[in-house]
Specification:
Elements (H helix, E strand, L loop, with lengths): L11 H8 L5 H11 L12 H11 L13 E4 L2 E4 L1 H4 L7 H4 L2 E5 L3 H5 L3 H4 L2 H5 L3 H8 L4 E5 H7 L3 E2 L15 E3 L4 E3 L2 H18 L5 H13 L4 H14 L4 H15 L16
């Protein structure tokens, strides 16, 4: 079956190659990403508010919250999740649970603390630091989250939490407030790992040995999937750079396609895939 995927204007040769491809859609997208240039003629948004507006458009065809998988839609200027459909139950703050917020996977607190400006007045002082503003507005580190989950996760690190308390209905995320740790669902752990590695490499940030070991395990257990690749492609077109740790996963998808299969966890979320 022939497939045609949306690609940037000027890449006609790539478009023709993909349209003639007989692979599974995931592998066609992976091949396309490997043919794209390392950077695009775009500028990274220089404000957090600008990044959020761009991300709303990027997610418009796959409007699903990161941790809980709740579909959301725009109601006026607000993004609102369909909590009943995804089985989400507010733990405590129903008002904040009724909106989508753009969460930093690596918290602003975590990367801000490695800047001198944070020692001089926290996040407000760092707003005058161009490098902090680039980190704060980097769309690769931003995901749509139920507001209550974003608030409860706060600036906690990721890790494993004993038990399955399910304080948010069917949403598979646990927050240990005493230990200051959040445990995400298995299906997004690799996404988190690749985002942390991206932030570390792009901005020269430090990760502890313990963090690195955990994230490496998550990266292996939850490989890159179709939506992660497509999201990366869309962000690259707007921001001007991709996440190399996501794009490296394209090679694995192509190899799996050549072998007649798709790695576990590879989805079919981009337009045109079955």
């Amino acid at each position: 079956m022939r497939r045609i995927f949306f690609v940037p204007t000027g890449l006609g040769a790539v478009r023709r190659g993909v349209s003639a491809c007989r692979w599974h859609g995931v592998n066609a997208l992976a091949a396309l990403l490997m043919l794209l240039p390392a950077s695009a003629p775009a500028d990274q948004p220089m404000s957090f508010s600008t990044a959020k507006r761009e991300l709303a458009a990027i997610y418009s065809s796959n409007a699903q919250s990161f941790y809980c998988g709740c579909r959301f839609s725009a109601i006026g200027k607000r993004l609102s999740p369909d909590l009943a459909a995804c089985g989400y139950q507010p733990r405590k703050n129903a008002n904040r649970a009724s909106r989508i917020e753009w969460e930093h996977l690596m918290p602003a607190w975590a990367f801000g603390h490695q800047r001198q400006c944070w020692q001089q007045g926290g996040r407000r002082a760092c707003r005058k630091d161009p490098e902090f503003r680039r980190m704060e507005s980097d769309m690769h580190n931003l995901v749509p989250a139920i507001g209550e989950v974003n608030g409860d996760r706060s600036n906690y690190g990721y890790g494993m939490v004993a038990g399955e308390s399910r304080a948010y209905g069917r949403c598979d995320v646990e927050v240990d407030f005493k230990a200051r740790v959040a445990e995400p669902a298995e299906g997004v752990r690799g996404d988190i790992a690749r985002t942390y590695f991206y932030m570390r490499d792009r901005y020269g940030l430090r990760l502890s040995r313990q963090e690195t070991r955990l994230l490496e395990a998550w990266n292996r257990a939850d490989p890159v999937d179709a939506w992660e690749l497509e999201r990366n492609r869309r962000i690259r077109l707007v921001q001007g750079n991709g996440n190399p740790h996501v794009e490296a996963g394209a090679h694995a998808l192509v190899s799996a396609g050549a072998a007649g299969g798709v790695p576990t966890g590879a989805g079919s979320l981009m337009p045109g895939a079955e």
